[in-house]
Amino acid sequence: MTKEQQLKQEILDKTKEYYELVHKKNQTKPFVSGQSRVNYAGRVFDEKEMVNLVDSSLDFWLTYGDYSKKFEKELATFLHVRWAFLVNSGSSANLLAFYALTSPLLKERQVKHGDEVITVAAGFPTTVAPIVQYGAVPVFVDMELKHFNIDVTQLEQALSPKTKAVMIAHTLGNPFDIKAVKAFCDKHNLWLIEDNCDALGSTYEGKLTGTWGDIGTSSFYPPHHMTMGEGGATYTDNPLLKKIMLSMRDWGRDCWCESGVDNTCGCRFTQKFGTLPKGYDHKYVYSHFGFNLKATDMQAAVGCAQLKKFPSFVEKRKENFKKLYEGLKDVHELTLVETQPLSDPSWFGFMMTLTRDAKFTRNDLVEYLENNNIQTRNLFAGNMLRHPLFEALTQDTDYRVVGTFPNTDKIMNDSFWIGLYPGMGDEAIAYMIQKIREFLSKNC
């Protein structure tokens, strides 16, 4: 072992020691009813993430590198897809996925300005933002209140000659009706982007969500199913979409050389592009108006360690969901989310909605829970159309709506969810059930 290798090993050994001394106690801290904070989500890690992170930092390769390539390969293997691309966030993953559909390389299937994309208003804004930012037209349909996903009966009504794609999320890990949505897209030759940021590890008919459509997206922000701090990914089996996403992620360049590598094609100075002079450096030829959405190798290093733990994370989420459901299923004032038929969700959260029998408001209940150290969340934007960001847009020009949105508004007014992430033990689950039932006994 060289002196450099010996010193590096000492540093990594000390990193393990530091985890044991500083972080492990927080990861294994016993739950104290009424005192411990029950967060809706959180990081679950050990010394392996920290060792990978420090190992990467010592190499000081600050951009896309060996850990990034390893992560992409292992994520693609896990998902049973051909390609996965690491990006700097789930929002960037949605941006890249949608903008890939705007590439001229797609010819008659290219999404152009003014073309329409079917989506929903109940969810996270960055599922819709890229559509608006590009100048396409989102077409909003309502939700259903059993599985809290898109109402597929409205898809045909939303269709127009301008429709080019469907872009929707699997709500809190519960797959939408993929069979119906996929059949609709296939029938009308539409692209399907699955926002899989809240559903990594969920399956539908035994096949992982995010892999049914043309492109899937994931987020690795700390509350999500696995984390690398900031980070996300897109994935696909389509060779042309793979080429486009790689270009758009990396500045829009035509060259496919990795960072720090030149002349992979062997003809860097011999090709002709556009009206550029023949032999113009292929490293600086651009075929798309792209972005720089790459993550760092240090983030990928953390992701590589998380991915090894990921199957156990999914199982723990399923166990916690089952315990919450069993503990609250007889409560008449709350409608609990039901599992989408044919699916096995990797749950992100536990969704509840007030019934007509409730003699209290959603905020009454969530404030009680928050005051008892239980963190709660609404279903993100609730009804995006009611937010200030739509005030600058004109209906039927910048966006379309299909009918009214009674269910979306019901979610906005009466729904909320609590956590079930893998770091949550039985005591925390029991405490949440206890406090919800305690509130109901006092207010019903």
TrEMBL record:
SUPFAM superfamilies associated with the record: PLP-dependent transferases (SSF53383)
Swiss-Prot/TrEMBL keywords: Pyridoxal phosphate
Cited Pfam families: DegT_DnrJ_EryC1 (PF01041)
Gene3D superfamilies in the cross-refs: Aspartate Aminotransferase, domain 1 (3.90.1150.10), Type I PLP-dependent aspartate aminotransferase-like (Major domain) (3.40.640.10)
GO BP term (any one): polysaccharide biosynthetic process
Coiled coil stretches, renumbered: none
Signal peptide from the UniProt entry: none
Domain of life: Bacteria
GO molecular function: pyridoxal phosphate binding; transaminase activity
Swiss-Prot/TrEMBL cofactor(s): pyridoxal 5'-phosphate
InterPro entries: DegT/StrS_aminotransferase, PyrdxlP-dep_Trfase, PyrdxlP-dep_Trfase_major, PyrdxlP-dep_Trfase_small
Protein family per UniProt: Belongs to the DegT/DnrJ/EryC1 family.
Protein name: Lipopolysaccharide biosynthesis protein RfbH
Taxonomic placement: Bacteria, Pseudomonadati, Campylobacterota, Epsilonproteobacteria, Campylobacterales
